[in-house]
């Protein structure tokens, strides 16, 4: 009877969270390249939920320490306090059971860094009846899937793909181009290393980067040589 009574109780107009099977939660996914305003869109949504009286929390990966450890900060400097964690499964225990049960909305920024994103979204939305809004990169600089953000698309109520502005021509940018020769997938950096580009400039940019790598490689092999127009190594 206790659980039945709980399942019909409300809390300030919203159905209170915490008990299983009480209310259906929601999963919303915001994806796109770097500099597309994903964090800004997430913050706007979280702030709106907070202003309407909902209990909200923001989580980001502790891998991302580009701006501040205990804040989510957008590229244009807007801030919001957050929990910086190595994984999502530890959040509930670290946040505290009571506080967790009172939560209505959870925002997750830089979600591509969380390997346990899928299970966390299932627990939060399906079992605990909360809203979870996830923002992250869908692809890496080689346009391959990045982390587990795409895995939660089948769980989602909505998926929003944002675009940036191509740094070279100003058209809509869908991809992130890495300007350096680093090849690690997880190279956390900003505009010094990455730029948003349109399809045309992504294709051209990769060619330019590849050919400059080849030339540098050839020069390394021919130390002391004054030859120009060095042949490609590949
Ligand atoms: Zn372009």
UniProtKB/TrEMBL annotation:
Keyword ATP-binding: yes
Catalytic activity: thymidine + ATP = dTMP + ADP + H(+)
Pathway membership, UniProt: Pyrimidine metabolism; Purine metabolism
Name this protein carries in UniProt: Thymidine kinase
Binding site for substrate: 194
EC class: transferase
Gene transcribed to yield this protein: LOC111483705
Active site (catalytic residues): 110 (proton acceptor)
PANTHER family: THYMIDINE KINASE (PTHR11441), THYMIDINE KINASE A (PTHR11441:SF12)
Domain of life: Eukaryota
